[in-house]
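Chapter review: from sequence to fold.
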Amino acid sequence: MINLFKTKIGRLRILAILEGISLLSLVFIAVPVKYWMGNPLFVRLIGPVHGTLFLLFLFNTLSVGVEQNWKCKEITWKVILACFIPFGTFYIDKKILSKL
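The token string follows.
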């Protein structure tokens, strides 16, 4: 795990996992608590964290894509699309990022 911090792709993988966890927390914990229990506190806490991780993931994906000369049609768009889909970042980490 420590080795992931040493490379840009490793840091992108860490961001992918964190962004995925934040999205799942928002969708499956914070939003249900807000609407079923009437308590928006978790959305107010997790929402900005998820938004920040989402933007960091997007910018780092583009940065790594340019640096590694990824072909947009083959890799970059798949990695970016993954952050819009629940569990997508976990899938992309396993299928694409772990092999780079």
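Two observations follow directly from the output. The CA atoms of residues 66 and 76 lie 9 Å apart. The longest helix spans residues 8-37.
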